[in-house]
Each structure stands twice: as structure tokens, then as C-alpha cells.
Amino acid sequence: MSVDLRNVRLTYPDGDRALTALDEVSLRVDPGRFQAVAGPSGSGKSSLLAVAATLQRPDSGSVLVGGVDASGLSAAERTRLRLDEVGIVFQQPNLVSSLTAIEQLVAMRHMRGGSPKRYRAEASDLLATVGLDGKQHRRPHQLSGGERQRVNIARALVGGPSVLLVDEPTAALDHDRGARIVELLGEITRNHQVATVMVTHDTEYLESVDGVASMRDGRLSTASVAGVPR
Ligand SMILES: Nc1ncnc2c1ncn2[C@@H]1O[C@H](COP(=O)(O)OP(=O)(O)OP(=O)(O)O)[C@@H](O)[C@H]1O
């Protein structure tokens, strides 16, 4: 399924004025495509992800997930759509310190619903997908920063979402670990045929993406050539 933002406008109250966080933003990402959105701090990247995740309603414009316009849905229907179709990789892994890697995924599975018997098998497969075979029973403090980010990514894939939204996945990592995480996201995008949007202020790691859009002051320009921002 694709994620499709059409002429999205989002403002925040700012004293007696309104601050425009997203200014007529349009972006469509199809299954199996890895789209980066690069821009400086405050340019609107997190706002774009929040709107794409249907966590935040735009002032105007529409957000379609798999062709379904989220603005026409009730809050409960939006939540269901998000649980079924959208995986979110937050910048901070926010792992539960007392749970092992596999338990982090199983806990997410309970939220999404599904057959309990298959919880652990699915979780185990996803941890293998992100290269954590053999580390499934470690707690967050027994994992490196890169490994915690891998658990974070695996957790976002629980339930087989069709859209993957990723916020600054390299922020806390050194260059090599950051590069490997972005490569992994590219592999997941292709192998799981998800529509992936990754926001980043870092243009260092963009070799494996299919396109780069630039964000500046809430405006998005989608011009890009084979991973190189213009
Ligand atoms: N809840 C809010 N209320 C008011 N203004 C906000 C709110 N959230 C974000 N903003 C403002 O909206 C603009 C876009 O913020 P956003 O967090 O989307 O940018 P960003 O590109 O993700 O930045 P960063 O890389 O620093 O996280 C900024 O000017 C920010 O100060």
C-alpha cells in the first residue's frame, strides 16, 4: 500500500499568529520504495511524519494510506488503520528496560492483535531479519546503540505494516553503524515491499534510498537524482 500526502497544510498556534509547519506538502511513496526527506532542524520533518502516521490531523489537504483518506475516518478508525498498516520507528528506541528483545516485539503484537501462538515465531523471524539472531533474550542495556535501533525497527515491522515511517534513525549512531542501519532499511523496504519514508537531517547515508526530497521551512521539494539531493 502507498502513503500519499496531498497539499497538506499544518499550522501550530504561535502567540496570536500561526506557525506554518507544513506548507502545501505533497508526497507519494509506493510499496517497495525508500524515500528520504532531508532538512535542517525545525524544517517540519517530524510534523510530516506525524501527519503521515495519522497521529496529527492537517489543517487542510489529505493523507491517504493504501488509498484510504484518513480525514474521512473517526478517531477509532484512524487508530485501527495505523495499527494495521503503519509501522513507526521513533528517533529514540524507547524500549522497555525490563523486557528482552523478543518480548519488546511480543508486547507490540498484543497491541496489534493476532494469534498468540504465532507471536513468538513472528518476533523471532523479525529479529533475525534485522541481524539479531542469537540476541533475542538480551535486555536493552545488554545491547549496543545500533542493536537497540535494530530492535526498534523490528518492533515497527510487527504485524506486517505496509507503510514504514522512520524518524532520524542515525541520530545517536557513529558513521558505520548509521550507514548499516540505513542499508538495512533499504533491504527491508524491498524484501517486505513496504512504502518507507525516512526523515533525516543527515545527507551522509543516502546511497540506498530511491529518492530524496528536501524540506525547508515547511516546504517540500521532491527533485532528486538517484539518492543525491539537488
Ligand atoms: N506542538 C508544537 N507547537 C508549536 N510549534 C511546534 C510544535 N511542534 C513543532 N513546532 C514548530 O513547527 C516547526 C517544525 O517542527 P518539526 O518538529 O516538524 O521540525 P523538524 O524538522 O522535525 O525538526 P528537528 O529535526 O529539530 O526535530 C518548528 O518551527 C517547530 O518549532
UniProtKB/TrEMBL annotation:
The keyword Flavoprotein does not apply. The keyword Transport applies. Pfam families: ABC_tran (PF00005). GO terms for cellular component: plasma membrane. InterPro entries: AAA+_ATPase, ABC_transporter-like_ATP-bd, ABC_transporter-like_CS, ABC_transpr_LolD-like, MacB-like_ATP-bd, P-loop_NTPase. One of its GO terms (molecular function) is transmembrane transporter activity. Keywords: ATP-binding, Nucleotide-binding, Transport. Residues 3-228 form the ABC transporter domain. This is ABC transporter ATP-binding protein. It comes from Saccharopolyspora montiporae.
